[in-house]
Design a protein that fits this description.
Layout lengths: L5 H14 L7 E5 L2 H14 L8 E3 L8 H4 L18 E9 L3 H13 L4 E9 L11 E7 L5 E6 L5 E7 L2 E2 L4 E3 L2
Parallel strand pairs: 1-2, 1-3, 3-4, 4-5
Antiparallel strand pairs: 5-9, 6-7, 7-8
Length: 180
């Protein structure tokens, strides 16, 4: 089975966020790299209908609990939070949610900037396999994938998003839908 179209999933994610009349987000924060790309597009679309703080970007490399095992990612970028986190209602954005450890690291870093009023999570793909009690409020799609596979979220030179599966031997051929 082929992977879903990432552009369609982005639109579904945006529709969910816009349809949630209870959301009161004043700021979006994307996690480098894929979450930052998604947050840029979401911020642009949501800013058309509401007032938002400037987009925040997090690099959680130093906050990962596996930093001592996997080391520093080759393309570490600095975090940029250009608004006052204290009292902000934040929508945290990431590309793929699996174990929950990246989200835990992002929340830890956000609290270094201040105490937000609330944090909600939006993710393009939920792979399942949680190791921490973390869940997303907004999900583009849920997918069950082979444990040895890596889901790669990328964008082409035109800025169009795409998904592919890889493992140590190359590309994997499919995915199984997971109920969201």
């Amino acid at each position: 089975m082929p992977l879903p179209d990432a552009e369609i999933l982005l639109n579904q994610l945006l529709d969910q966020i816009q349809a949630d009349s209870d959301n009161n987000y004043t700021a979006l924060v994307g996690i480098h790299t894929g979450g930052a790309w998604l947050a840029e597009r979401l911020h642009q679309a949501l800013s058309a209908t509401r007032s938002l703080e400037p987009l925040g970007l997090l690099s959680v490399s130093f906050y990962r609990d596996d930093f001592d095992r996997v080391g520093l990612h080759a393309q570490v970028r600095p975090s940029e939070i250009p608004f006052n986190v204290n009292g902000a209602h934040i929508l945290l954005v990431d590309d793929v949610l699996q174990t929950g450890r990246t989200i835990r690291a992002a929340i830890n870093e956000l609290f270094d900037y201040g105490r937000p009023a609330s944090i909600a999570l939006a993710t393009l793909i939920d792979r399942g396999g949680r190791e921490l009690p973390i869940c997303a409020q907004y999900i583009g799609a849920g997918l069950r994938l082979p444990a040895e596979s890596i889901l790669v979220f990328d964008r082409d030179v035109q800025g169009r998003f795409n998904l592919r599966l890889e493992n140590k031997k190359g590309v994997v051929n499919g995915a199984e839908d997971m109920p969201a």
